[in-house]
Give the backbone structure.
Amino acid sequence: MTDKTSNAALSSREILHQTALKAPLSSGVYMWRNAQGTVIYVGKAKNLKNRLSSYFSGQQTIKTRLLISHAKSIEYITTTNEYEALLLENNLIKKYSPRYNINLKDGKSYPVMRITKEDFPKIFKTRNIIQDGSTYFGPFPDVGALDTFIESIFRIYPVRHCRTLRNRDTPCLYYHMKQCKAPCCGKISKESYNEYIGEIKALLEGKGDESLTKMTAQMKAAAAELNFEKAARLRDAIKALMVLQNQNIVESFDSDDRDYIAYYCEGELVSFTVLKIRQGKLIGRENYHVESLNDDIDLVGEFMACYYEEALQIPPFVYIPKTEQVDLIAQWLANEMKSSSKVIVVDSHDAPRDVAALQMARQNAKEDIVRRLRARGDMPAMQELKEKLGLPGLPVRIEGFDIAHIGGKWPVASLISFYNGNPDKKNYRYFRLKTTDGLIDDFASMKEAVSRRYSRLLNDGAELPDLLLIDGGIGQVNAVEEILLSLGLDIPIAGLAKRDEEIYRPGNSTPICLPKRSDGLRLLQRVRDETHRFATSRNQNLRTKENTKSIFLELPGIGEKRALALQREFITLEGLAGAEESAVAQCIHVRASEAAGILLAAKELLERRNDKKDLQRKSLGVSGTTKEKAAQAQYLEDLAGAALASASLQAAEKTPKYGED
């Protein structure tokens, strides 16, 4: 970057800062514009000066830095109170559609059924709503059920299929198939045709059983009047409606209509999930993808203002996560939307049903964010890490290490790999550590694992990672750098300390602190958490395998089958040592001399185990009755171990197969 460019960037920032400092102390709305004069963000504030000044003070988040880097000017409009600011903000967002405000992009828009406003209306499925007087029903989360319903409507009612109604001299094939009354040729009057449309609308108006009850009454009335054609038509229409309604499989114990709205954020990415409950049934889950630089406290209000365009869309109850804007949202619903709906903030003390539903919505939003990050390759996170950690290139391949052990026993090092910001599980490895078995020395353990890993890659001429992440602080980082330097490798290293999520680089005891919502920090946390999970799972597998190993396998000439037979017959080593030769010979089908050798070995093994236990008890100062209790406890422990060993011998160990280096 040239000095001229740098000075221009500095000048632009200073101009923005001075504008913020000169803003009034009243409430209002502010707009950020880019170099082309396009509005890129609209926000509201209770105090314009304080809010705008906050963008230039303290430690700035990724969102703030991104906004300032794209902005050229700030404008603001004062209002008499915060509620007026909310209304003005909503109007300006709809007018300008700023890039960094919520602009709803439906992750999966559900179709609706449209009945056009014409003399001879047409019926069809669509995802676009046009305000031209047409009647819409839906949305329908089950597209297949809607298709089946519309097909049934066309079989039952002779309404037109053509996209555009034109005057014709001869009717089309649908007329001859008795699926259309040919309004294009004047073979049906407007009144008669719209009688069919009225019946179809009646099917979909009302709620659930209400429509079925109404149509059933009409069917019986038609039959009583001997209008059997209409009665049969209504009967088939009721069946089609039941197919459409019976797709709802998640039900509640009450019939309240309600929406649950939750969101999940990663940097500027925000995903909203709306769970729609109607007549006690979950009829749909809608995901909305947005990019917003708004604060968390403002997200729900901004979303609702975009999501609910008409009062009829709003159910009696809307459940949302905790927000300071709840009073403003309620006021907006009552005054602007003319809705009597209640907004309810859900916390952990509310009804379990509501807590669970909101958690379900939040989990769906989180999964949607994960899909979005996977689809875009988490490029923003890698770019941020390159900049903040001073890396020579993008960290496309990140490898992470962690150590797991229990008091120095069963030490394991895990190696996991992330490629393009996502787990690359085929390149996961684990190391059964040799130099630190029985010792508690994480530094030495990390050195061994790193040395083994990169010595092998060096010898094989394999691709090296762009970044090596260590779970630990500056001590672990410097220890790993020492090993890499001895191998002649120049792999960038970073350590992530758990306590304050601080990032350490070799030779620098001052940590790098990224904002909590930082994309780069989030990626490092994902790598760190995955290394910990993988190391812990391998350590647990080793502990389970060793703890369930049968003591009988230590006897000469005893394999798994014979050990299982002895386990079933004598249960413990004490039981075997006190048995008769004939009983042992009969149990595993051996000669008496071989059984005698097994018994002798069992007694010697039992004696060595007892001597070891006595030494342990003496070192702990156990004597008298306490000694007896310890012996009893050890006996119970042996019984439990025997049971585990029996289960282990009867079933093959089932664990994921990852490479061991």
Notes: The two ends are 45 Å apart (CA to CA). DSSP finds 21 helices and 22 strands in the chain. The first strand starts at residue 28 and ends at 33. The CA atoms of residues 545 and 648 lie 8 Å apart.
